[in-house]
Amino acid sequence: RAVSRTPRGPLRPRAIAAPSAVPFLPSADHLQEWGPQSWKQREALQQPNYPNQAELDEAVAQIAAFPPLVFAGECRTLQSRVAAAAAGEAFLVQGGDCAEAFSQFNANRIRDLFRLLLQMSVVLMYGGGVPVVKIGRLAGQFAKPRSADLETVDGQSLPSYRGDIINGPEFTPEARVPNPARLVRGYNQSAATLNLLRGFATGGYAALDRVMQWNLDFTRGSEEGRAYRDLASRIEESITFMRACGLDMHSAIMRETDFYVSHEALLLDYEAALTREDSTTGLWYGCSGHFLWCGERTRQLDGAHVEYLRGVGNPLGVKVSDKADPADLVALIAALNPENTPGRLAVIVRMGAAKLRERLPALLAAVGAAGQVVTWICDPMHGNTEAVQGYKTRRFENVRAELEAFFDVHEAAGTVPGGMHLEMTGDDVTECIGGGAAVTELDLSSRYHTHCDPRLNAEQALELAFYCFGRTRK
Ligand code: PEP
Ligand code: MN
């Protein structure tokens, strides 16, 4: 297989620019008509129809009184990191479940995703020679946009499952009724998840020498496992050398990591209840997660989601498919990032391998001609979904091919591939076909656990990181 196992030549020493200190500071004009509830004047797609308004109001009021989950200062730091990724001075990796589930909430799953993202970033840092910005798609990734309002099974139609924060996945009339009590449960799960992640990130668990020792079971037999262990021993040598030079292994830089959380800001009642004014700047932040994105189905310029997101100070993402028109994208970027602040906005491209080569160049050209600074991120998952044996799946070779196309198109255009966005899990699932793990069509039924889209398993995700090895350099 063509996965690159070795670095392409020696690492080029590179000056890492200090993080940009420019926060997103929208003009008074931009914010004139905006407020945490101003989205209610616009059409909000993909929202549930709650049968009982009083219950919804009560749940929203409760959450509005709860503490914020993330803080403005953290969002501003992340923004400077996303800005570095736009300039090729960092590479961003965002990954996690398509949809978090109440029933799959446990500490080990969070630990395994965290650990996997750290291992992928070690591979990418070594290969790319730049820092990696780590963002988990979790602690709030509950609500799902659906292509149809109804799901029909054996002639019976019920409202579609919209994610655990809205209704239940079971195919029964009771489960599918949107229940506002789920908002509070979603908040509580997110709070507990963040608490654990903060502990992992700063409590010594993420120490680099430990990361290298993690020998996940799945790395034992496979080629990726060998490649990872080989890399680990090279990094250990580098650490020994640095220690001899006087590097303090107890310093924060060797023991701690920055880890951020993200989700699609889809369920606007939840987002609005967690929108808080920052006491130091007077700006509003979406305090449900550090990085919030707008999905492909809800990015209408005059829609409620764009209205909500344009006013919060968080770093944002917007998903675009092959259907995006270059002029529309330029207008959308201007609406979300009117001051053209680096790191404010990432465009997450999800087109499918073949279509990306056709359609991305025109978007890069239009955005470049408009002088807009965005961080380009590749989501190689959502344009490559297919049905096999009754399962929604993705083929590893297509996922990798889209990533390859993304790097190639940027190279040809002279623009910067800033990161990747994956649906993945630290668990040993069989939801995507192929890769070194050689999950076959027949394996799909064995460990297919997702409530929504199919995820890469740990081995497949690590293999993608190896694929990017050396391609993340400017
Ligand atoms: C998702 O990220 O799970 C999703 C629904 O993506 P998109 O908006 O790109 O379809
Ligand atoms: Mn998905």
TrEMBL record:
Cofactor annotation: Mn(2+); Co(2+); Cd(2+)
Pathway assignment: Metabolic intermediate biosynthesis; chorismate biosynthesis; chorismate from D-erythrose 4-phosphate and phosphoenolpyruvate: step 1/7
GO cellular component, one term: chloroplast
E.C. code: 2.5.1.54
Top EC class for this record: transferase
SUPFAM superfamilies hit by this protein: Aldolase (SSF51569)
Subcellular location: Plastid, Chloroplast
Domain of life: Eukaryota
Cofactor details (free text): Binds 1 divalent cation per subunit. The enzyme is active with manganese, cobalt or cadmium ions.
Binding site for Mn(2+): 98, 382, 423, 453
Binding site for phosphoenolpyruvate: 137, 296-297, 319, 350
Reactions performed catalytically: D-erythrose 4-phosphate + phosphoenolpyruvate + H2O = 7-phospho-2-dehydro-3-deoxy-D-arabino-heptonate + phosphate
Ubl conjugation as UniProt keyword: no
InterPro entries recorded: Aldolase_TIM (IPR013785), DAHP_synth_2 (IPR002480)
This protein's UniProt keywords: Amino-acid biosynthesis, Aromatic amino acid biosynthesis, Cadmium, Chloroplast, Cobalt, Manganese, Plastid, Transferase, Transit peptide
GO molecular function, one term: 3-deoxy-7-phosphoheptulonate synthase activity
Keyword Electron transport: no
Family matches, as Pfam families: DAHP_synth_2 (PF01474)
GO BP, one annotated term: chorismate biosynthetic process
Sequence similarity: Belongs to the class-II DAHP synthase family.
Name the UniProt record assigns to this protein: Phospho-2-dehydro-3-deoxyheptonate aldolase
Species: Auxenochlorella protothecoides (Green microalga)
Lineage: Eukaryota, Viridiplantae, Chlorophyta, core chlorophytes, Trebouxiophyceae
